Amino acid sequence: MRMTKRFCSVVSLVIFFQLLVHIVLAQTARASRPEDAVGTQYDTTHVYVAPEDFDRFVASLLATFGGTTTKQGVFTVTPTPSSTMSQLVLTPAGTLSVFGFKTPIPYPFGVERTGYLVTDIEAAISEARSSGADVIVAPFNDPIGKDAIIQFPGGVNTQLYWHTTAPSYPVLQTVPEDRVYVSADRADAFTRSFLAFSHGKIVADDDHAPGIDIGRPSDTYRRIRVESKFGKLTVLVTDGHLPYPYGREMTGYEVPDLDTTLEKAKAAGVQILVRPYTSDHRDEAIVQFPGGYIAEIYSDTKPNASH
């Protein structure tokens, strides 16, 4: 009987150490694996507008932020039959992929927030799965490479893409901020998953951020700021009781001077939805471009802030 108990104890110890070695090796492999990200200028906000608003929207972006565009074309960018106008807008404050579908938009396209260029799409998908994300659109060929769509915990959809010929876009003057609204139930799961996938780090986690950020100046909320080679990401943890237009803005664009930028925007037909206010060393406003796209624009008011 004693021998049996001793034998079971030894077996249990062997299994424990085997599991421990497996975990350590897995963590070491993840830490040593190269990052999938290429650079922030290749991480694009996806904007869907009606074809009749397409040119006016692109013109308003250029008038507000400056920059250039790629040649406009009509393509199939989904794994099932469809047709869309498509154009990249390369601004100093961020890159946007603009789509104007001429056909109904196949599900689940149209709700992905961003597109991340990766060095190896199969490796990136494996990393996404390991981090706890779902692959909701398996890899498929597009006219210039491959695409897939993943979903992080909390329902945050992101496109991954890879080009057959590596693109070359200008380095950004300021890095845009992806703004993600999630519930308290899923905030930690989303953050863990995104950090594991992006190899990023938390630069701030404030449990009592000022509620003016979400249109509720008398309240506080939790705000998590993350940085990685994919860019900046802010997690806004709320109860969903959000006045319009909060929660509709997908991206925050940093500019050297907010007032000057807003004057340019208004002249280009951009509507100011939330007038400028100050929070967390930022002057901020929320705007709506022709075609319906809603975004935050802000300038950094910290002393010696770099732009």
Number of domains: 2
| CATH hierarchy class name of the largest domain | Alpha Beta
What's the rounded overall pLDDT mean?
Answer: 91
CATH architecture descriptor name of the largest domain: Roll
Morphology call: globular
Q: Output the structural class.
A: alpha+beta
**N-C termini distance:** 74 Å
Unreliable spans are: 14-32
What would CATH call the homologous superfamily of the largest domain? 2,3-Dihydroxybiphenyl 1,2-Dioxygenase, domain 1
Total helical elements: 5
Task: Estimate the strand proportion.
Answer: 35-45%
Number of strands: 17
Gyration radius over CA: 22 Å
Largest sheet entry: 9 strands, mixed
- The helix fraction, in percent, is 10-25%
Sequence of secondary-structure elements: HEHEEEEEHEEEEHEEEEHEEE
CATH topology-level name of the largest domain: 2,3-Dihydroxybiphenyl 1,2-Dioxygenase, domain 1
Write the layout of secondary structure elements.
Elements: H1 2-32, E1 44-48, H2 54-65, E2 68-69, E3 73-75, E4 84-91, E5 94-101, E6 114-117, H3 121-131, E7 134-142, E8 145-152, E9 156-163, E10 177-183, H4 187-198, E11 201-210, E12 220-228, E13 231-238, E14 251-254, H5 258-267, E15 271-279, E16 282-288, E17 294-300
Helix pairs in contact: 2-5, 3-4
Structural write-up:
Strands 1, 2, 3, 4, 5, 6, 7, 8 and 9 form a 9-stranded mixed β-sheet that branches. The termini are far apart. The protein folds into 2 domains: 40-163, 2,3-Dihydroxybiphenyl 1,2-Dioxygenase, domain 1; 177-300, 2,3-Dihydroxybiphenyl 1,2-Dioxygenase, domain 1, CATH 3.10.180.10. The protein has helices at 2-32, 54-65, 121-131, 187-198, 258-267, and strands at 44-48, 68-69, 73-75, 84-91, 94-101, 114-117, 134-142, 145-152, 156-163, 177-183, 201-210, 220-228, 231-238, 251-254, 271-279, 282-288, 294-300. 38% of the residues are buried. Strand 4 (84-91) and strand 5 (94-101) form a beta hairpin. With 307 residues, it is of the alpha+beta class. Mean pLDDT is 91; it is low at 14-32. Helix 2 (54-65) runs antiparallel to helix 5 (258-267) and helix 3 runs antiparallel to helix 4 (187-198). It contains 5 helices and 17 strands.
